[in-house]
Amino acid sequence: MKTEGKGRRLAVALCPPLVLLCALRVKLRSSMTRFTPLLGIVTILGVAFLFSKNRRAIRWRIVAWGFGLQILVAIFVLRTNVGSG
After folding, report:
1. Are residues 46 and 77 in the same domain?
2. DSSP symbol at 59
3. Is-contact 42 50, C-beta < 8 A?
C-alpha cells in the first residue's frame, strides 16, 4: 500500500514537467522534432514503471533488447530499398 501511494505522488509530481515539455514542443516545434520519439519512449516507460506493482520484476535487459530490435527494424524499413519498397 505504501509503495502505491508513492507511485501516485510521483505521477502527480511528474505531470507539470510533462505539460511544460509539451508546451515547449509546441513553441519550439522545429528543434524538438528529433526528440519527439525519445520523449514518447521515456513517457511510456515512465508511466509503465510508475503504475507497476512490482517494479523489481521489470527485466531491464529484456526492455533494452526490445528497443534495440525495434530500432534495427526501423532502420531497415526507413533506410533500405527492400524495406521501404
Report:
1. no
2. -
3. no
Give the predicted TM-score (pTM) of the model: 0.52
Quick one: 19 and 38 in the same domain?
Answer: yes
Residue owning grid cell 516545434: 29
- HSE-up of residue 50 (Cα within 13 Å, Cβ side): 17
1 shares a domain with 37:
yes
Q: Look up residue 21 and give its three cell numbers.
A: 515539455
pLDDT digits (tens, 9 = 90+) for 30-57: 566 767 777 888 888 888 888 888 888 8
Contact 49, 6 (CB under 8 A): no
User: Which residue range forms the structural domain that includes residue 79?
Assistant: 58-85
- The grid cell for 76 is 531497415
